[in-house]
Amino acid sequence: MNLVEALERSPLPRELAFPEAEYRERVRKTQKLMVERGVDILLISSTPNLGYLTGYDSTMSCGYTIGILGQTGDVALHCSELEAPCALLFSTIKKIDVFYWYEAQDTATQLAGILADTGGNGKRIGLEMGNAETFASGAFDTKSYLKLAEKLPKAKFVDATRLVLDVRLIKSPAEIKHMKQAGQYTWTGLKASLDAAAEGKTDNQIVAAGYGAMIAAGSELMSIDPMIMTGKRAGYMPHIPYKRIKLAKGDAIYLEYSGTHERYNAPGMRSAVIGTPPDGIKRLADASIKVLELLLENAKPGRTGDEVAKIAKKGFDGAPKDWFFHGGYGYAIGMGFQPTWTENPVYIAEGSDTVLKPGMCFHLPICAWVPTDKYGIGFSESIHVTESGCETLTPGKDRFLHVR
Prior knowledge:
Blueprint: H1 3-9, H2 20-37, E1 41-44, H3 47-54, E2 65-70, E3 76-80, H4 84-90, E4 96-99, H5 107-117, E5 124-127, H6 142-151, E6 156-159, H7 163-168, H8 173-196, H9 203-217, E7 227-230, E8 252-257, E9 260-261, E10 264-265, E11 268-273, H10 279-298, H11 305-313, E12 324-325, E13 330-333, E14 342-348, E15 361-370, E16 375-385, E17 390-392, E18 402-403
Parallel strand pairs: 1-5, 3-4, 5-6, 11-18
Antiparallel strand pairs: 1-2, 2-3, 7-8, 8-11, 9-10, 12-15, 13-14, 13-15, 15-16, 16-17
């Protein structure tokens, strides 16, 4: 039985995150950029890019799924038969070529045949050749690239890693609406975890309260598991996994969550301390909050990431001795699939010449720590740049160190 044909004979109504017109406009902008950059055919290996252009969604976003887009027409799909139902339910895609998932050892030969049959040999084929940012995945794999080059000797392969990302950078009002809903989930989770924090509780129990609250509020599969660091482990910020660590008096608690709505994210950070805050933790929290407030006041269109970062940096003047900050005052966010909610290698940081524009969205991750004394905290908001400044996508206004 042909699974795609069987599903198409009695289809479910498509569940799209946006009206079809929004997807058509995204494809149109991408095709315009393809023409400008001399790309005849674009192979979309980044699942978030494929989701952005078509609505495609799946719990197995790491699997081989390739979108094929010419300078005209719609996005076609090459995927396993187990992913075809996801495309038929969640996306605008109508043309799907499938293989059986257990026969996936040589998908590139089949893909080369599809491209050859549609006139791809001799064309300029754009590949997403790298991971666009530090924690992302989705680059076209080397083995498949070499096979395509062998099977399509007249084709010229060019780097199109940033092509769809450049279209994605400026968000539409509909995208902003989804991100604000994600921000509501985020705040629900942070508040639940802060309320659950108490001496003797474990980091797992605190995370469970927040995770459950976000899912109950409506969040979907999250781009990153909720993050928590407590006590001395917070001095090793910010990506240490939770592992049944009990809280004691004087321990700081660092939380970083993002709920998701139609795969859109709006991360937030908050921090707490068990009992009276030690002086170092209090000073680090005060300084970090000051940095965040300066960012919110100064993130405006027309300013560069460098300009905003240098202003915000002054907030750390009151930080304790030997504090450490990662240097990234903001990074671009929007649609995200596992393993990251970071969307784009665009930053608010010293040395960044990126000019802020209305519609850009950033997470402002002000987490700082003191490795020598083993403590750390974090406060953040997600924002979108407006015509006159910025607006938060995360609704929490209680930017202070919670005492539990």
